Records
---
Amino acid sequence: MFSSRRNFIKNGIVAATVASVTPHLLFAKSKATVAVGLQLYSVRDEMRNDPLGTLKQLAAMGYNNAEHANYVDGKFYGYAPEEFKKILDDLGITMSSGHTTLALRHWDASTNDFTDDWKKTVDDAALIGQQYVISPWLDQAQRKDYNEYLRFMEVFNKCGELCKDAGVKFGYHNHDFEFNLKLNDKLMFDIMMENTDANLVVQQLDVGNLLEFAKPVEVIRKYPKRFESIHVKDEIASSREGHKYESAVLGTGLLNVRKVIKEAVKTGGATHLIIEQEAYQGRPPLDCMKDNLAIMKSWGY
């Protein structure tokens, strides 16, 4: 069932793309463009309380690209995939990527295959037009044993194949532990990079999350062309207990975000710049998102 549905979705996407592109553009590949979007976790409370109204406000600000953070029980922010796609289309918003965690429960080692639940996740992502299915987390249990971690990296590669068959790409989004925790005396991030196929597993580099343990530009230069997507984020010192840093409006914090973006596009191969801000220093989140987009535009994106 899932194979036929996946082929139907994939063929529909290809047909729609071909029909909308003029012959000379099909013949000559144009210069790659960079898409700027917003991770909707940045306005998580607003999206929970009024997803349609919030999306309308974001569209009015000028956002035409977004990344979701809420796919639950086969629905996006409470909407069935077909309903959510119509909302996005009506607002002129492309949902280029989304965060849905690939967990141990989604892989059945006895059948050497993914569960139907995960296959539906991938198919629904393709249906609403995602280019990327991004897994944003690794459970604690997956960080303890080197061999178990390697086995799950192979599951990552297999998920890349599954997503490719559906016409999308699979990716992983880092936090900070990947740059701090070691297995067999090697950083988890390095193990991941060395054991995942660059053609099957995209890295979405969150430049703010790694700040405490690594420098974003150095990471990008170490692994060129591995970061098709990045989370554009700035950080300030945090007064919250248990937090060294917290995110802030772009250009107001400790990171030279503009320099990082430039390196990500030039060296990292970034084509998707996803704005994310999780703390607001007492300001309304939507006001911060308006400022963030204005700053990106002032930087030429």
---
Amino acid sequence: MNVYGLIGYPLGHSFSPTYFAQKFAELGIADTHNYRLFPLASIREFPALIQAFRFALTNTGEQLCGLNVTIPYKQLVIPYLDDLSPQASDIGAVNTIQFKGTAQTLQLIGHNTDAYGFEHSLRPLLAQVQFNYTKGALILGTGGASKAVAYVLEKLGIAYTFVSRNPKSEKQFSYKQLKKDHLDAYHLIINTTPLGTYPDVDRFPAIPYAELSKQHICYDLVYNPAETAFLQKAKAQGATIANGAAMLKLQAERAWEIWNDKNSLS
């Protein structure tokens, strides 16, 4: 059995098992391919997970063939890997792990498909609303996903500033600092935090929603629920909204290509 999966904590919100189960069924490989959740309370449990599958390959035939990585381990997993793709190295965060070699010669290669998914879901949105590229972007949160978002914004030529509960430099805003002037200058707002994820659907980033307008785009990387409190509040002000569902599908397809060693060094 070829096993794929997701590490992170907690994982009850994940759509990935359903997505890949459907994919395996469509490809006619459901009898030999399986996708599982591996909730790790600590990243220190990661080596034991890998070792367990080395044993399983020898004794039961179950082979771990690839992993996705989610909050809070996109950065913390890096020291446990043997190598990074150039893009993952540039971004400084990993959400896909490629397995190369046999159980005895196994190498774990870190990739970032979040950037691919975000870019290819954002481009059509920017074109749709005729985004003014002289306006910047606010990235809410400073975790692993925010790094992929920043990487894409740089590629697209969109200036950005991080917003954090605990700013670590003068180049970051705190939520309390955000005023009308900031919302006038930054028309793309991307939530990379888990706030609002099911089941905590009443939570949302503390930005001045009353200052949003139809000129703003609010993009939430959260996809469950489909319309978070963040997006509901932005929509009420006339902003264009998008959730992370399209990004999820795009990054998952890119991960599948990498696991099957197609253009795996991107």
---
Amino acid sequence: MDHLKNIAHVSKGKATKFPLYITCIRNQPDTDFHSHEFVELVLIQNGSASHRLTSGETPLQRGDIFVIPRGKYHGYLNGSQLDLINILYIPEMLPMAQLDAAALRSFDAFYKGVPHGSEIYPSMHLPEEDFQILEKAALELYEENSQRHSGYQFNMMGLFMNLLCRLARLYTNQPDIEKNVDELGNVIAYIHSNFRRKITLEQLCRTANMSRSSLMRSFTRTVGAAPLQYQLQLRISEAIQLLLITRKSLGAIAFEVGFSDSNYFGRQFKKITGCSPLQYRKNAWKSDQ
């Protein structure tokens, strides 16, 4: 029920027990790092901004589509007339028959926000012709959600399934999507299991059965960061959780997520999030109060 409360909060009073909601935001304001208890699928319609992730900042423009998994942090910076469509949903609570969707290799990327068991933030930029088709489908879904005529839930599910299928097909067919996903999946799984420990590129090359240059090129293109940078992101993400849900000291948190030097931890944390660990904790606790 907490998930539904979050969606109801975003829906500004249009509460529903149906765990799928869509809204159009005009002139999206800048936002600090935040996370949600639902999956967020975003289509950028107009304007520009920097999309802040733990891995850094990415410029946004019309035609961009991305997913923010539950519990993962993001924000917007330097927005200029940024218009977007937000689709919010809880996969496990949707009465959706997946049928042969599993055959679409990237289906989980947009349905659950977590492709192939990893924590990649799925994203792509579409040419105008393709984006217009998805934009029209999303706006039809928005209209159905807003009007809520008899049978709207039934129709919303059909429209949402159609949108997901189109997204998965386009994502899979992109020419720059790596074909060695299984090998990269093994590397990502290894990093997730060992991110607190020292990891070398040689270990990752053996895991993927790839050369150093091939691993660096494929991993960076697919994930958006180099392997050891991705490990650093995982450490900082874990540190954020510990800052929010525990009262452990900064030194203890640094050691727990794999840093032997708390000062280095503080510098890396600020580089990624924009503030020190202590300030981040103070801001979070102040917001809760």
